Amino acid sequence: MRRTPRWAAPVLFCVLLAGFAAGIWASYREAFPGRGLYRTTGVFETRLGQTMILVRHEAIPGLMEPMDNMALIVESADLLDRAALRRGDRVRLTIRDTPEALLVVEIQKLP
Q1: Rounded to an integer, what distance in angstroms lies between the CA atom of residue 5 and that of residue 88?
Q2: What is the pLDDT along the chain (111 residues), one digit of tens a residue?
Q3: Which of 5, 8, 27, 108 is a Cys-bridge partner for 92, taking CB atoms 3.0 to 4.6 Å apart?
Q4: What is the CATH number of the domain that holds 75?
Q5: Distance between CA atoms of 82 and 52, rounded to whole angstroms?
Q6: In this structure, is the dihedral angle defined by the CA atoms of residues 89, 48, 108 and 85, taken in order, positive or negative?
Q7: Domain total of the chain
Q8: DSSP state, 65?
Q9: 60-83: b or e for each residue (b if 16 or more CB lie within 10 Å)?
Q10: With contact defined as beta carbons under 8 Å apart, do 85 and 47 qualify?
């Protein structure tokens, strides 16, 4: 009968612990992508001008509670054009909190 080496259990524990830590880190980065950046999901309502949108969004962790309708400024008209949003589309937004306004820096259309 072959015996498992004594070092196998601690190595397996360390591998599992590293995987668990990576999962927690990924979940944290999903909500907080970087310093001054926040993520939320919501429903696109309409476009107001070249760089402003109206969104019904969920809570933005660390920033604000859910809102039924909120106007957000998008970083550029090109970013908004590339997203090709239609009323009712579910979106994931990355938002930068600037002294002037909440600025959308990334838009991802969700299925």
Answers
A1: 58
A2: 778 788 888 888 888 888 888 888 777 767 667 778 999 999 999 999 999 999 999 998 888 899 999 999 999 999 999 999 999 999 999 999 888 888 999 999 999
A3: 108
A4: 2.40.50.320
A5: 14
A6: positive
A7: 1
A8: -
A9: beeeeeeeeebebbbeeeeebeeb
A10: yes
The CA-to-CA distance between both ends of the chain, in Å, stands at: 53
pLDDT confidence of residue 63:
86
Cβ contacts of 58 within 8 Å, gap of 6 or more: 40, 41, 42, 66
Place of tokens 């009323």: 87
3 within some domain: no
Dihedral in degrees, nearest 10, Cα atoms 20, 25, 26, 30: 140
Tell me, what's the pLDDT at 34?
Answer: 75
Give domain status of residue 11, yes or no: no
